[in-house]
Each structure stands twice: as structure tokens, then as C-alpha cells.
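Morning run. Coffee first, then this:
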Amino acid sequence: MTRRSGPAPIILNSQSGFTLLELLLVIGVTAVMFLGIMQITRSWMQAEIAGKAGQHMQRVTTAVREYVEANGVGPLAETADAINGGAAGWADLRAKLEQENLLNAGVLQSPLGVPLQISFSKNGSVSHTVIFATAPLPYDRVMDAAKQTGNSGGFLSVLPDANNAYGGYGQWRVAATQLYPASAGVFPCIPTARGQSCFLSLISHTDEELCGLYLYRNPTSASCGGNAMATDLRMNNNNISNANEVQTANMTVNQDANLGQMAVAGTTTLNGQTAMSGGLDITGGDMTVNGDATFTNNVTASNTLRALKLDVATIDAERIETTNLDTDQMNVAGKLAVDENMSVNGDVTIKGTGIYASEINAGQVNAGDGQIRVGTVDVQNNMNINGNVAISGGTVSTDQLVIKKCTRIDIGSGASKNYGDC
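And here it is:
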């Protein structure tokens, strides 16, 4: 038996694995990565919420701004409301927000999880409209949302200054006392800790911006002059409507005028259609209407009254010049000139120059020292006279005179003659 010679084989029996140090190192790295991912996720979620809150606040701000600039502040002045309340004057604004789908179950909510409220306050000539969260929130969340809102977005916090609200980018600063009307009580959102802040959006308008298109007055008991207008009233070619009484020295209206009663000491020029439900008293100047004039009450004019078409209850004027005249009774101290038709349901009294018309329809005509000059006089047509024509010192001048009814015409001192079928 042969024996193999050589070195004996070496057999290794080894086991592999992580040491405790290596295991701790892996756990540490994994924990750091997990915490990093959690922080990134948390920051992303906060940024997402802040972005939604800012966009929502921006939409609310735009809707409120559009409403205020279209309607003014009006009854909303010096008030505050959560929109779901019943304060007077808020119904239209609520309807605007509902139209923009900004209300959730009737409440103005925010993605930050707290309801919003709106307040209107005034500081001198500046009106502040503030939209704000009703409870404090974490400072960093509010800052992110304020910056996402845009230039109007801001915050109120203990730092840097609890007495002022600031824009998210530092572009504005408003005293905290101006954020809420004093009549509405205490501002609902008051941060008390350094890490808290109130989210808000500020809309500011000057009186000129907000009321530039409106005529208004602020009553005051300190001085009667505070209730007077010390400037010109220019209507920019717009109408004056539903004025119960107008008293002025001179008046010019470039379009239509719908008035109640008017007293003018100087010259009046109305370039459009004119309707007046009250009386007209022109004491010192002339009145010219370049359109039709309708007065349902009396007209008194110490000088000339001109109109294309004049429709009035009773006229007492120095001089009347018109194309067509329709009235119940008329008293003219000077000249009555009518280019076309004159219709008077009652008496016509002329104390001055006389009547100049192409057609007269009247109950009784009395021309004092003046004349009656017409193209054609027809008792049954152009000139209907139920009484007499009296001319104390003038003459009758006419191209054609047709009287189909017994009528007496007095000329001069006592001379008279009957015309017609007597």
C-alpha cells in the first residue's frame, strides 16, 4: 500500500457579519435620512398650505376690492362682519363672495383652518378694508401665506412690533388700531406669544380714489359752512335725476334734466330734454332749453324763457320764445313768440309787445297794449276763442281773418266791432 506524501490540507471554518459599530452607524444614517425626508415633506406640506391660503386670500381680496370700488363703502363704513352674520349693508358683499365661490357653508374660511372676517375703518381721508384670520397662527406659516397673497398680504405679531401690522414684503405698515373700527369692539385676532401671528390682507383707498365719481357731503354741527359745497359741480355730460329742489345762480346741463323744483337767480341753459315735477322760478336771468321742456307745475320767469317745445301748467313770464306751446294758463309781461302751435286751455294775458304765432288755440286772449300777429286766424281751427279779444291800444295785423262765431274785437279806446255770425 502506497502512502501519498505531502502537506496536509488546511480547512478554514470562518463566519461573516456586521459589527455593533457598523450597525449603529447604519441606523444613524437611516435616521438622519428619515428626519431629512420628514422635514422636506413637512416643509413642502406647509408651503402647499401657505400657497393655497395665499391664493385664497388673494381671491377674497380681489372680490372685496372690486365690490368696494364699484359700490363704495356706504353702509359698510366703520363696521366689521364675518359675512355669515346679518349686519345691515353686507348682503350685497355676501352675494359677491358667493358668486365667486369663496364661501364654505356660508362661512368665509381659509385653508389655514380658521375663519376670515372683514372690517371697514376710516383714518382721515384713507379708508382701510382688512380681511383677516380670526385667530393667531404660527408665525412662519403666516409669513409664507402673506407673501403668497401678494402686495396686500401682511401680518400682525408680537415681533417686530405689536402696535403695527406689516406687509409680507415690508411694503406697508398700518397701526393696529386702524385695522378694526372702534365701534365694532376689540380686534378679534391678538397674538400674545412670539411664535404667533395674525394673517391679514389690507386694501386702502383715499377719498379721491373711492369717491371721485360720487357727490357726497358730510353733515357737521360745528359750522353751517361744512354742509355747503365750495366747488363747481361738473356732471361730465351725465344726467341730474330725482332732485327735489335746485337753487342756483347759474345752471348749465348738457344732457337731460329731471328735476323736482328749481329756483335760478341767473342764467339757465339746458341742452337736453327737461322734465320738472315742481315749480320753476327764474328771478334774475334767462332760461334756455335746447330740447323739449315739460313742467307739471307753475313757471315764473322775470326774463326770457326759451324752449323748442314748452309744456307747462301755468306760465308767468316776462318773455316767452318757443316753437310749440302747451299750457293751461299764461301771463306774459313782454313778448310771446311761438313759431308754430300755441295751445292754452285757459286764459292768455299779454301785457307787453303782443302775441306772435302761426297758430293760436286758447280759451280767452287778452292782449293789453300789444298786438296779435298771426298768419291765419280761424275761430274754429287755428284760433279758438270762447271769450273776447281785447286790444287797448294796438292793431290787429293778419293776412287772413276768418271768424265763424260771434266775436267782439275792441280796438283803441272803446271802439269795437262784432265779427262773425251775430
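The two ends are 188 Å apart (CA to CA). Good start to the day.
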